[in-house]
């Protein structure tokens, strides 16, 4: 968390609130990054302040007011000198969500009796109801599972396919949404077709055309990743779902990189199922995820795991969460995480995330030799930013970003991935660009 007198971000707030063009101009013109990248070396946590108090003080509708977003950042116990840009992999939870998990964990450890734990049936249903409201679904369409991988595998294991039938997958899908299908096809004999999508397509029509050409009359299911973790491409989900459902094809959307990042309305999207993890952009508890299955398609998907609390008369999507003993505190904290998102506003979360990601893309695009994979088109991108740092060794860049510049991202083959979220400032976006600029000049 930041302090009033910290030196982590040496770009003054007045610069953030007015214009960053002069900074980028100086950077590309060859100004050394050292002054911009001054950092503190001590990790500490400032006292927690209720976000509602800051909402009263600032207008979050003004995306140029960094004071509000610094107040949001103060909800996290992040290391003072760290610019964490790894939301595509793992996000921190804000203080109120952390404390909710800790509170219930302490409660269970103090009294693990059936009587005391009985309250978790109510907290689970509360979390389900809040998630349904956030995602544009009904509670009976929401299952609280453990992560996106489990949710994806519930669909690939539970959707019945016969030998000779076909499915269509995107070549950009995560392994839990591709490899899992491949393993099952070897067992059951159905055929997998793949649609190839350009890493940086020219527009939505190019994507839709590729999928439409790949569809055959024998395809029973289509599955794609909403936002790619390897290219940053955001698929036109609503249009793709309509393309499939107009042909009677079941469509599953992997929402690992969109749940908690984009404003999601599943009824409007039109998918038959959707998956997401709380530990990524949702900034929720670990090892809790969401699986949505449209009410009128639930008979088409069997549960993959049957344990306590299974009943033959279980209602709706709850049949997909009979997983045995759960971390009750984590499941309960899903509702508190929804509260955190709605306090800020899902539309504001998306807008801010895209604002910081766009600042990184715009800055990197001005650096000589840097190749940006992620589209600059806001309709085709979200918070995942993929770029190749010129001729620099990616492993070295990944390591140096963290060890020298205290910026945490990810190495993706020849590319670097930065995935900022609402706890990142525009100053940190500039820090990332300045760090790459300095490494390019030094050749290291």
Gap between N and C termini, in Å? 30 Å
Major β-sheet annotation: 7 strands, mixed
Strand order of the largest sheet: 2-8-7-6-5-3-4
Strands, total number: 13
The total count of helices amounts to 16
Percent range of helical residues: 25-40%
CATH superfamily of the largest domain: Type I PLP-dependent aspartate aminotransferase-like (Major domain)
The CATH class assignment of the largest domain is Alpha Beta
Uncertain spans: 1-20, 22-47
Q: What is the fold-level CATH name, i.e. the topology of the largest domain?
A: Aspartate Aminotransferase, domain 2
How does the helix and strand content classify structurally? alpha/beta
- So, CATH architecture of the largest domain? 3-Layer(aba) Sandwich
* Global Rg: 22 Å
Beta-strand proportion? 5-15%
Overall structural domain count: 2
Instruction: Return the string of H and E elements.
Output: HHHHEHHHEHEHEHEHEHEEHHEEHEEEH
What's the overall average pLDDT, rounded?
88
Shape: globular
Topology:
Blueprint: H1 13-17, H2 21-28, H3 51-57, H4 66-73, E1 83-84, H5 95-110, H6 114-117, H7 120-135, E2 142-145, H8 148-158, E3 166-170, H9 179-188, E4 191-195, H10 204-214, E5 219-225, H11 237-245, E6 250-254, H12 266-269, E7 273-277, E8 289-293, H13 328-344, H14 346-365, E9 370-372, E10 385-389, H15 394-403, E11 407-408, E12 410-412, E13 415-418, H16 426-442
Parallel strand pairs: 1-11, 3-4, 3-5, 5-6, 6-7
Antiparallel strand pairs: 2-8, 7-8, 9-10, 10-13, 12-13
Describe this structure in words.
The protein is built from 16 helices and 13 strands. It is α/β, with parallel strands linked by helices and 444 residues long. The chain folds into 2 domains: 13-81 and 345-442, Aspartate Aminotransferase, domain 1 (Alpha-Beta Complex), CATH 3.90.1150; 98-342, 3-Layer(aba) Sandwich (Aspartate Aminotransferase, domain 2). It is globular. It has helices at 13-17, 21-28, 51-57, 66-73, 95-110, 114-117, 120-135, 148-158, 179-188, 204-214, 237-245, 266-269, 328-344, 346-365, 394-403, 426-442, and strands spanning 83-84, 142-145, 166-170, 191-195, 219-225, 250-254, 273-277, 289-293, 370-372, 385-389, 407-408, 410-412, 415-418. Helices cover 39% and strands 12% of the residues. The chain has a 7-stranded mixed sheet with strand order 2-8-7-6-5-3-4, sandwiched between helices. A 4-stranded antiparallel sheet has the order 9-10-13-12, with helices on one face. Strands 1-11 form a two-stranded parallel sheet.
């Amino acid at each position: 968390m930041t302090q009033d007198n910290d030196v982590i971000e040496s770009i003054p707030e007045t610069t953030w609130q007015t214009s960053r063009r002069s900074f980028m101009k100086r950077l590309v013109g060859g100004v050394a990054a050292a002054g911009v990248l001054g950092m503190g070396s001590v990790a500490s946590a400032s006292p927690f302040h209720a976000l509602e108090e800051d909402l009263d003080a600032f207008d979050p509708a003004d995306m140029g007011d960094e004071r509000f977003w610094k107040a949001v950042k103060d909800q996290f116990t992040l290391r003072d000198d760290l610019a964490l840009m790894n939301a595509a992999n793992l996000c921190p939870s804000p203080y109120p969500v952390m404390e909710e998990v800790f509170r219930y964990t302490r409660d269970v450890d103090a009294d693990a009796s059936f009587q005391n734990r009985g309250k978790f049936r109510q907290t689970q249903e509360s979390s389900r109801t809040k998630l349904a409201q956030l995602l544009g679904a009904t509670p009976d369409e929401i299952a609280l599972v453990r992560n996106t991988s489990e949710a994806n595998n519930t669909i690939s294991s539970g959707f019945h396919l016969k030998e000779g039938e076909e499915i269509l997958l995107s070549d950009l899908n995560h392994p839990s949404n591709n490899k899992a299908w491949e393993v099952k096809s070897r067992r059951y004999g159905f055929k997998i077709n793949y649609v190839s999508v350009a890493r940086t397509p020219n527009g939505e029509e190019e994507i839709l055309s590729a999928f439409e050409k790949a569809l055959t009359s024998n395809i029973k299911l289509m599955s794609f990743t909403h936002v790619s973790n390897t290219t940053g491409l955001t698929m036109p989900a609503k249009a793709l779902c309509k393309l499939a459902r107009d042909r009677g094809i079941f469509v599953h959307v992997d929402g690992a990189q969109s749940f908690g990042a984009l404003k999601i309305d599943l009824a409007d999207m039109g998918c038959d199922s959707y998956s997401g993890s709380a530990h990524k952009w949702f900034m929720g508890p670990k090892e809790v995820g969401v699986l949505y299955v449209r009410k009128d398609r639930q008979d088409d998907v069997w549960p993959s795991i049957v344990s306590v609390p299974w009943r033959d008369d279980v209602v709706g999507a709850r049949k997909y969460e009979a997983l045995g003993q759960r971390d009750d505190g984590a499941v309960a904290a899903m509702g508190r995480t929804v509260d955190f998102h709605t306090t800020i506003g899902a539309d504001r979360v998306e807008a801010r995330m895209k604002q910081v990601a766009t600042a990184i893309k715009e800055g990197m695009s001005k650096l000589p030799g840097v190749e940006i994979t992620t589209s600059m088109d806001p309709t085709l991108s979200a918070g995942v930013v993929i770029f190749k740092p010129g001729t620099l060794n990616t492993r070295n860049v990944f390591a140096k970003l963290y060890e020298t510049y205290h910026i945490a991202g990810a190495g993706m083959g020849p590319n670097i991935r930065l995935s900022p979220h609402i706890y990142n400032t525009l100053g940190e976006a500039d820090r990332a660009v300045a760090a790459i600029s300095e490494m390019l000049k030094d050749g290291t």
